[in-house]
């Protein structure tokens, strides 16, 4: 009897020991996973913090990824290729699991991301496609050509070209930075709609920058380096010299970005042209990014339209891609974009056109108030009463 009691006692002790050990092991594994998650680093490299758009993008993306419990480093390259390449190499040295890159120069960043890829780092191209390398895992952006389509359609409708008006209307066209692959696609979307009107003579460019023989491949001839407002202003001032102090009327300006639009507006006002904002004399001016200054200018009648790409949606989608990769799951892509080396798995989001009052018959053309109501910007900042 005593021997049985000893056996039972020893068995109970062993069972208890196994249970405790098992629980401890389970807790340890769970803790290890949590620790591993916290140690995984996502490195974000934005091109500049001198522009409102990239600061918003960077901060929103950082916030979204941190929500999932991962470490995040955010850097800005100050519009310098060398700085961005150095930042990416630094990310590799810090053991980043993922590097998200909004490239200053889509081609020049290639060698840096190749080093990252060789080190086993996943590379996500953010908004601007990284070119001429296979070291890109995913590309997330908005429908690029659609931006140009929005802008061109706005001008076509405002000038009455869709209603058969023959003009000729005087217009000036701008494209974005020559080192940004997106700029070509923005212009492609617009040029496919505007080119027939140049060929027919309904649209003309008094500056001579764009003629009826202008081709898509010439888009860099009308580009604004680094998308800079100051450079756009200087270029527009030069073009306005052909307008005889305002005796030749400017009907419209195709601008692919709000910063360029502001430069155009500054040039018109600075040259003392006799065209009053908010009247039929003021030219129709497009833009992109729904910057605070642009939304204010739309309300004031200085800018007619901007394309709104909600950076919150872009940041959310990129954060989802990062978390999916870090969790060891498969990323679902919808399309591909060719970067001159291969078809990069891509996710393309939708944008909207913004005018002062929107359009009741077009759900994707919204008002400044709609942008404010979405929480993207405050009424106070844009001057909406």
TrEMBL record:
SUPFAM superfamilies: Periplasmic binding protein-like I. It comes from the Bacteria. GO terms for molecular function: carbohydrate binding. Pfam families: Peripla_BP_4. Keywords: Signal. It is found in: Cell envelope. GO terms for cellular component: outer membrane-bounded periplasmic space. InterPro entries: Bact_Solute-Bind_Prot2, Peripla_BP_I, SBP_2_dom. Its main location: other. PANTHER family: D-XYLOSE-BINDING PERIPLASMIC PROTEIN. This is ABC transporter substrate-binding protein. It comes from Pseudolactococcus piscium.
């Amino acid at each position: 009897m005593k021997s049985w009691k000893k056996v039972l006692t020893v068995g109970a002790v062993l069972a208890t020991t196994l249970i405790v050990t098992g629980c401890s092991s389970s807790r340890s594994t769970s803790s290890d996973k949590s620790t591993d998650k916290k140690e995984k680093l996502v490195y974000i490299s934005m091109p500049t913090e001198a522009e409102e758009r990239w600061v918003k993008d960077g901060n929103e993306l950082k916030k979204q990824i941190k929500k999932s419990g991962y470490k995040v480093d955010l850097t800005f390259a100050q519009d310098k290729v060398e700085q961005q390449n150095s930042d990416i190499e630094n990310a590799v040295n810090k053991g980043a699991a993922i590097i998200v890159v909004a490239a200053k120069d889509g081609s020049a960043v290639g060698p840096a991301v190749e080093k990252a890829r060789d080190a086993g780092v996943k590379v996500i191209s953010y908004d601007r496609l990284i070119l001429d390398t296979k070291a890109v895992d995913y590309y997330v952006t908005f429908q690029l050509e659609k931006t140009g389509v929005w802008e061109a359609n706005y001008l076509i409708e405002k000038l009455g070209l869709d209603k058969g008006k023959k003009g000729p209307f005087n217009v000036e066209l701008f494209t974005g930075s020559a080192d940004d692959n997106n700029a070509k696609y923005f212009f492609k979307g617009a040029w496919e709609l505007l080119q027939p009107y140049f060929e027919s003579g309904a649209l003309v460019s008094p500056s001579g920058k764009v003629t009826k023989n202008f081709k898509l491949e010439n888009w860099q001839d009308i580009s604004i380096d680094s998308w800079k407002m100051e450079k756009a202003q200087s270029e527009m001032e030069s073009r306005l010299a052909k307008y005889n102090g305002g005796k030749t009327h400017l009907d419209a300006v195709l601008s692919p970005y709000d910063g360029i639009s502001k430069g155009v507006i500054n040039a018109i006002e600075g040259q003392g042209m006799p065209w009053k904002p908010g009247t039929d004399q003021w030219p129709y001016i497009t833009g992109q990014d729904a910057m605070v200054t642009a939304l204010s200018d739309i309300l004031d009648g200085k800018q007619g339209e901007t394309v709104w790409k909600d950076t919150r949606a872009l940041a959310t989608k990129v954060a989802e891609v990062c978390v999916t990769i870090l969790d060891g799951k498969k990323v679902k892509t919808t399309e591909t974009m060719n970067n001159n080396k291969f078809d990069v798995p891509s996710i393309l989001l939708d944008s909207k056109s913004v005018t002062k009052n929107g359009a009741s018959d077009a759900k994707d053309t919204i008002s400044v108030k709609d942008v404010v109501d979405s929480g993207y910007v405050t009424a106070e900042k844009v001057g909406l009463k």
